[in-house]
Amino acid sequence: MLKIGYLGIRGSNSYAAAKQYFFETGKLIGVSHFLELFQALKTGVVNRIIIPVENSLAGSVVENYDLIRKYHFQVVGEYYLQFENHLLGVPECGLNKVNNLKKIKQVFSHPQALAQCSQFFKKHHWVEQLGFTDTAAAARFVAKKGDMGLAAIGNREAALIYNLEIVKKNIADDNQRNYTRFFILSKPMAVPKNANRCSLFFTLKHRPGSLCEVLTIFAKYQLNLLKIESRPIHGRPFKYFFFTDFEWGKQPLNKIKSIIQLCQKKTLILKILGFYQGGRL
């Protein structure tokens, strides 16, 4: 049986993503921090980990991109989860008591979830935002406290698990299009036959046109660039890695690999993170 590591506890968004992606075919193991996930995969405590890498509202989870580069695990899958960012409170704060929203003084959640609800906090300026390890842990904390002045941001499953009520539904800035992209990572394994996407990172010579030379190869061979993002190289001020995702159509994998080799000749370092089947929104 697969052992799958995820961030948080039952009811967290990562828990929901793992549950949906693996269809309950493996054992789900929650941890408190992203670094613990990578260490658990390295030591064999788990066979796969599922990590958030990008949100449609708040942007990239940069910590995880840095950990991916450091640990050199293989990206073997991708999943998009539509987030439910509900404001959760103790049962006395039910939807039929509108004035109770004004009584909430502190809201707890993962920093990414808080960032996705910036307009809510701008409107309710008296509410203090407090970061937590994950959304479900924040919900559990609020439930244990039983204080009407406290609330959490989480999903419907967390509300059910920890006996909280939804004080206000869908408080994210754009609740209809709030998706988070997850990577599934493993130690090196065979490339899936249905792979149609690739993630990689590279560094370049510090001269005019070096990035353009790489992107020209993508364009020439009709590779669809999905993402490119720079991250600083630690210990080398103002030097950067470029993380890139792309997809292709009917070209065979060997052809894609040969195109990547052409790109490699234009870079200082190029590392393939994985070939995988792209997720669907």
From TrEMBL:
GO biological process, one term: L-phenylalanine biosynthetic process
Keyword entries, A-Z: Amino-acid biosynthesis, Aromatic amino acid biosynthesis, Lyase, Phenylalanine biosynthesis
Biological or metabolic pathway of the protein: Amino-acid biosynthesis; L-phenylalanine biosynthesis; phenylpyruvate from prephenate: step 1/1
EC number, UniProt record: 4.2.1.51
Catalysis performed (reactions): prephenate + H(+) = 3-phenylpyruvate + CO2 + H2O
EC class (word): lyase
Pfam families in alphabetical order: ACT, PDT
GO molecular function terms attached to this record: prephenate dehydratase activity
Start and end residues of each ACT domain: 199-277
Swiss-Prot/TrEMBL site (Essential for prephenate dehydratase activity) positions: 180
Name of the protein described by the UniProt record: prephenate dehydratase
Biological source species: Candidatus Roizmanbacteria bacterium RIFCSPLOWO2_02_FULL_41_9
Upper taxonomic lineage: Bacteria, Candidatus Roizmaniibacteriota
